[in-house]
Amino acid sequence: MPKSSKAVAVAENARLTVRKTYKLYIGGKFPRSESGRTYLVDGDNVALASRKDARDAVVAARAAQSGWAGATAYNRGQVLYRVAEMVEARRAEFTALGVPAGELDAAVDRWVWYAGWSDKIAQVAGGANPVAGPFFNISAPEPTGVVAVVAPAGLLGLVSVIAPAVVTGNTTVVLAADPQIAITLAEVLATSDVPGGVVNILTGRYAETAPWLAAHADVNALDLTGVEHAELAAELERAAAGTLKRVIRPPDGGIDLSADPGLKPMTALLETKTVWHPKGY
Amino acid sequence: MFEYAPAPESRSVVELDSSYGLFIDGAFEAAKDGATFKTVNPATEEVLAEVATAGPEDVDRAVAAARHAYGAWSALPGAERAKYLFRIARIIQERSRELAVLESLDNGKPIKESRDVDLPLVAAHFFYYAGWADKLPYAGFGPDPKPIGVAAQVIPWNFPLLMLAWKVAPALATGNTVVLKPAETTPLSALFFADVCRQAELPPGVVNIVTGAGDTGAYLVAHPDVDKVAFTGSTEVGREIARTVAGTGKRLTLELGGKAANIVFDDAPLDQAVEGIVNGIFFNQGHVCCAGSRLLVQENIAEELLASLKRRMDTLRVGDPLDKNTDIGAINSAAQLARITELSEIGAAEGAERWSPACQLPERGFWFAPTIFTGVTQAHRIAREEIFGPVLSVLTFRTPAEAVEKANNTPYGLSAGIWSEKGSRILAVADKLRAGVVWANTFNKFDPASPFGGYKESGYGREGGRHGLEAYLA
Amino acid sequence: MTVTAPIGLSDLRSFLHGLPGVDKVGVEARAAALGTRSVKAGSKAKAIDLAIRMVDLTTLEGADTPGKVRALCAKGRHPDPGDPSCPPVAAICVYPAMAGVAHAALAGSGVHLASVATAFPSGQAPLEVRLADTRAAVEAGADEIDMVISRGAFLAGDYTRVFEEIVAVKQACGSAHLKVILETGELATYDNVRRASWLAMLAGADFIKTSTGKVAVNATLPITLVMLEAVRDFRERHGRQIGVKPAGGIKNTKDAIKYLVLINETAGDDWLDPAWFRFGASSLLNDLLMQRTKLTTGHYSGPDYFTLD
Description:
Chain B has 474 residues and is of the alpha/beta class. Chain B has helices spanning 56-75, 78-94, 96-107, 111-132, 160-173, 188-199, 214-222, 235-245, 270-282, 302-313, 334-349, 400-408, 423-432; strands at residues 19-20, 22-24, 27-29, 36-40, 47-52, 150-154, 177-181, 207-209, 228-232, 251-255, 261-264, 294-298, 353-355, 371-374, 391-397, 415-419, 437-440, 459-460.
């Protein structure tokens, strides 16, 4: 359970600490919820995102998508590696929020692992197809677009759904489980050369916002990894069917964060494009 | 014009029974309630045969048979499964003339297409996936990939046997068993395929064929003992299936509709582009989900290109599907003809200019002349909705960026075409098109090694190639 | 009709390189698809007779003698002596040295006399020699001249030289028709075939012809398809119809009918006439005659029943 850091600070010093206000992270900025709502989590008033915040986040994610996907894979890899550096640098803050050291290590290592995939996944997931004719034929993976994510708890959970989505060029709207951890990660992202809008983080109750994202026609995929209730997951999957979104279902028994993630978290959010061209003088 | 005289392919290579049952657990049987439907030759409206309508109990039996067969089939060494598939491929090659004629009879497609495109691809598809059956650990889906179980497969009427091959070959190669429902207007080639399975001595229950209409398909995909659903058809039905499957944990792949842009730049190889446009929209009467139904032509060559296109369309031969010289056969059904007719009338009513070459259509059967609409804008329904017929909407653009924007301005994303002699332009445009298959300086090419499938509302999952295995591996 | 070059000579290069490209795979697929057309019964009979009437019956051997040429002329006039309904061929095609003999043998028959000229087949002689060759052939009675272009000059990009040589030969032809042999097998690409076709047409060719028959690659369906597209487009732009002659390698009826289908569905039926399409061939004729006999008698024929010339 994350703990609030400031109570400790006040007790030991006469000086009044400057508290952090936990807001949303949309389009690279930290706005309050347009609804003006907050809710109390471990003593902090954190933003309670509304459907309109979700809508704004989708706009930001869409606006950022082609640029992010159009960046070179090498560049995306560098940016993600920078995120790992920044998380490492903020260990104390995450620790203060209750993230265990082992999970922090794993979270940093997972960023690094995914960062390295940026310029390799296309070679593993795509390639030349030996068609029976005088044609050049190649399949390459491309990001599916804007991904709405219901994130599982904890820093490692968050990293395990954000990194595989964005490393290939998707942009995301993330409904976070642990607001303080998530917004602290947002601060990392905001200072790591990740373009605004690539990751958008909403805090609040996903049961309220997720249905809007599941039905949103400008969302291409829905990652339900963090959804705990089977009936809600089914409802969201049904809503996603309206525009035939790609859906990552919640894993049976919850996500196993210690397991090798494999390629699935990336490939589930990739489209395969196959290009043909004749060969002839 | 130099007339070629009728050159009909012989019908006698196909022996049709008057009625066909369901293929369940290796045997043909009537539907439990005895219900049947008629399948007709769309070129003549002649009834070809009566076919059993599978009801819930029949589907239950088919799924149970597939479940029963699954244990032994999935436990079979891959090399042994491969040999069954190789056998099937060979038998299809040996019987390809018969199957081609049958396909043209039941579907209405020209014999030259069923003979030169459909059947060779069907056999090739089985050959391709046969070879995968004992190599799955090397496919990139983990060191010990497992089958999923019983696959429910629902296929459309536009390429009946080819769509069957796309579904059945990878499913069987990976160790799944299948219950397949062919379309109600084209059930016959699937039933002949059942006979191919028997000739190949495929174990009973590995492939089951249940014929019927939408109700049969809906019951099948909703069946609780099905582990995997694969569907090819309209986006509307695909949406319904996705809703049905939601929350069940069944794996799902969908190959749905399209409204492909075929983009012709001013530096295109024009004569080949015209061929590509014609092939893109008139191949298989335009009953092709990846048809190039929106021609985007650069405005500075539009007049010249359209003149060439019209001249070319004047040479299209519409008529008897069994005539070896027929380019455009019959529309598959009265219902489809009604839809094409309706959308075309809407196109004209919305102000687009309609043109068809002079061509005499047969009196009986379902026919639609090849048609183009010029002066179409993105706002026209004929530029947005899938017509699934020989109807081309022509739009113009000025710059590559505008072409890309218009091409992508659709909920669909199955395929696209690019015509240009400039390599860097082709590659840049191909990169930006949101479509699963991009044909550059060619169109409507298919190969078992080449993954096929859509972006956005054209569905998800890929069929063909190494990628096509994923849908059938746990 | 007087032909004025629609473009200046200095613009030739930019014009020819501005023509739309030809995609090899696409044009070959189209030709192959047309090759699957099935022509039956009465249509086939008509097609065979048309093909016979389009044959430029050819002998271009170092060993040609007056006797051989006379025999060929006799064959051209009456390809099937036993069947008076069999039409004559379009022309007899010989070397200039044989033109006089052939002219005499064809007198009054209506069969044209074509002579290859311009230092056929290589064209590697001074222009004056080639022009003299041409004039000699015309003087000996040839009413059609089959010239070769300088492929070397074409491949070197010296389009002006090729153009001017064609103009000069055309002048030397007088009233004789000029067929310009592009030797497409040496041009190597379809883009070059299209450019050479336009170059020849702009320079005044009456016909464009694929090949000498003396190199490895002679007439093919896709090459002829590109040339048919060229004459179609040229007429559309300039109003002048140009003929097409595939030569070399067309050996049987099946092949010949494929070419007729190609004409029918590319340039159109205006070209389905010996005035606008010819087959440069020798052995083709006997196969056409055999198939013709098969259609009239209902049984297969054999080579012993047709003259070898």
